[in-house]
Design brief:
This protein is mainly α and 249 residues long. 73% of the residues lie in helices and 0% in strands. The longest helix has 47 residues. The relative contact order is 0.12.
Length: 249
């Protein structure tokens, strides 16, 4: 069934296939009426392998549920969030940027498309900067705390860091970045897909909507699970540090 579907039908039904095709070096909007089987013949692809590749591609974007995250260690959560960041920066943002840049400005959706072409690059630049700041400062601080717990003593670097900051300050700063998609959500009226939207625009709006949901879950994992775990760890390290400085008689 999948092999005999046209590329346009494929991505219109599920935009994730557009990302899978991009992974293979195919821009879906350049082959709208070509079937998957025809692409396989054209590029000498094994049809069975391509079908499996499309089916497996969804696993790259599996999200960790809040329930699953509750039982995860801080170390695992940091690895998971870093992996999500890499997917955002290397896969999702370039994919959406390429699609938005290539959107033809049709008269029916001229204002929306032109505004997306201006707003999305600005959002993308700010979002990447936020990710780097989070990893370089917040995640690094948590790693210093976990290392101190393993070694049963805080390092000089951690002692200095704890004097100038604490988990609460990171939490307050994080609140300002919790809804980075607000502007795009308003612009697109909550990613509403007009009945007459061309396939390119359907894929863009679907991808933006899913990305927004992923960011919301990402923020929930950080706010509701990582921050409380890190706060408890920080308090534990502070107590052990005080005992180390002022041992009981």
């Amino acid at each position: 069934m999948l092999l005999h579907t046209t590329i346009e039908q494929l991505v219109r039904n599920n935009y994730v296939y557009a990302m899978a095709l991009r992974h293979l070096g195919i821009r879906f909007f350049e082959h709208p009426h070509t079937t998957v089987a025809e692409l396989c013949r054209r590029y000498a692809w094994n049809e069975q392998h391509i079908s499996s590749f499309f089916a497996d591609y969804h696993r790259l974007f599996r999200n960790l549920s809040l329930k699953e995250a509750q039982s995860c260690s801080i170390e695992f959560l940091l690895d998971f969030l870093r992996h999500a960041h890499r997917l955002f920066v290397r896969e999702r943002l370039p994919f959406m940027a390429e699609l938005i840049e290539a959107l033809p400005v049709s008269p029916a959706h001229k204002d929306l498309i032109e505004d997306l072409k201006v707003l999305f690059p600005l959002f993308s630049e700010e979002f990447i900067l936020h990710i780097h700041e989070e990893e370089d400062h917040f995640f690094h601080y948590i790693e210093l705390l976990t290392q101190a717990k393993k070694e049963k003593k805080p390092s000089a670097g951690l002692i200095f860091k704890m004097q100038e900051t604490h988990i609460g300050s990171f939490a307050l700063d994080h609140e300002t970045h919790d809804d980075e998609m607000r502007g795009i959500r308003r612009l697109t009226h909550n990613y509403h897909i007009p009945a007459d939207a061309p396939t390119n625009l359907v894929v863009v709006l679907s991808a933006l909507s899913d990305f927004d949901k992923e960011l919301h879950l990402h923020a929930q994992i950080e706010n509701e699970i990582l921050f409380p775990k890190a706060l408890r760890l920080e308090q534990e390290i502070r107590r052990s540090f005080l005992v180390h400085l002022f041992p009981p008689n």
